[in-house]
Each structure stands twice: as C-alpha cells, then as structure tokens.
Specification:
4 helices, 238 residues, EREX-like, coiled coil, mainly alpha, 2 domains
Length: 238
C-alpha cells in the first residue's frame, strides 16, 4: 500500500514538472504543494524502508523458528519411537514374568500333590506293616491257639512283610528334569530334595520291615525250641 502511494506521488510530481503550465500561473502555491508532496514522498519512503527492515527481521526470525521447530519435531519423533520400543519391551517382559509365575504356580501345585501322595503312601505302608504283627497275650508267647497256629501266623506275617518289601524295593521313579531356559533352579532343587526324602523314608521302612522279620524269626525259633523241649519232656515222662 505504501509502495503504491509512493509511486502515485512520484507520478504526480513528475507530471507537474513535465507539464506545460504558463509561466504566469506558476506561483508560490505551486512550490508549496510540491514541497509538501516531496515531504510526503520521503516519509513514505522512510516507512517503506522501515517496513522492509522489519519484514527482513521477521523473515529471519521465522526461518530460525522454523529450524527450531523442525529440530523439535525430529526430536519428538525419535522420542516417540524410543518410547514405543520401551513400551513393547515392557509388555514383553510383563508377558514373560506372567508366564514364569504361572509355571511356578503350576510347579508348586504339582509339588504339593506329590508330597500329599508321598504322605499317603507312607501312612498306608506304615499301617500295612503294623498289621503284619502277631499279638501274644502272655510272656510265654502262647495264647489259646496252638504253637503250630502261631507259627503259621508268623509265616503268614513274614509273607506279608516280604510282599511289602518287594513293593517298596521296586526302583523308585526318578524325576528327569526338563527345565526351560528361564526356569528357576530352586524348583529343580526342591524336586531333588523331595526325591531324596522319598529314598530316606523308603530306607527307614525297609529297615523297620527287616527288623520285624528278624523278630518273627526269633519268635519262631523260640517257639520251635519250646515245642521240641515239651515233646522231649513228654516222651521222657512216658
């Protein structure tokens, strides 16, 4: 707009300077108007120059701001990409931890079931071993039954103990561990401890059963000796 006004003023001045006006009409008023137009022209040029400087400054500042914004946008994009990668990694780690917890819970449940089964087996074997016993009501190892009956009971008791020993002496199943790469080692340690405990309890039961067999053998020998003594005494009396 200022450029347009400046050009219009320059054209007016030029038209007046180049005009063929009569010498008589030229007066002080003409020179006064020309001076006023020149002042307006200079003022307009000054405004234009100032505006051009401001425009240049604003353009430079705008370019600088654009560069800063471009850098910030690039930085934000990089940050967004990094955050996305971190989020994906966190989600993957969370999924792995959840799977690990599920496996540990499953292993704990399996260990609890195995221990309950071990306890039940021990209680059953102990009860069966206690039933493999001949009770006597007096210190002479005799009751209302005959010696032969008692010996038969002892033989039957030995058979039952032998069957229990055969059952217990079967190869104890060993847990072949097939842990995954991320399974904690203490789970395997727990299984190994359970296996060792089973072996120790089996050995205790075997020792107890063998001790009972020896005791039965001792009782059988005592009864047989007593029986033969009684028979010899009876034959002497006759």
């Amino acid at each position: 707009e200022l450029r347009r006004k400046s050009l219009e003023m320059e054209l007016k001045l030029k038209s007046r300077e180049d005009g063929n006006l009569p010498a008589a009409t030229i007066g002080s008023s003409t020179f006064s108007g020309k001076d006023e137009l020149l002042r307006e022209l200079e003022a307009t040029k000054g405004q234009i120059s100032s505006l051009l400087e401001q425009h240049a400054e604003l353009e430079m500042k705008s370019k600088s701001d654009i560069k800063v914004l471009v850098k910030e946008v690039k930085s934000l994009r990089r940050s967004q990409h990094e955050l996305k990668q971190k989020l994906e990694k966190s989600l993957q780690e969370k999924s792995e931890v959840e799977q690990l917890l599920q496996r540990e819970m499953k292993q704990s449940e399996q260990a609890l079931v195995a221990r309950r089964k071990l306890l039940h087996d021990c209680q059953t074997l102990h009860s069966r071993l206690r039933n493999c016993n001949v009770k006597f009501v007096d210190s002479n190892f005799a009751d209302s039954s005959s010696t032969l009956d008692v010996l038969d009971l002892l033989v039957e008791c030995d058979k039952q103990i032998g069957l229990l020993l055969t059952e217990v002496l079967r190869p104890c199943p060993i847990n072949h561990f097939t842990p995954e790469a991320d399974t904690l080692s203490n789970n395997n340690d727990m299984k190994a401890v359970d296996h060792e405990l089973r072996l120790v309890l089996r050995d205790i039961f075997i020792d107890n059963a063998r001790l009972r067999k020896r005791m039965n053998l001792f009782i059988q020998s005592a009864l047989q000796v007593g029986s033969s003594t009684d028979e010899n005494g009876s034959s002497v009396e006759e």
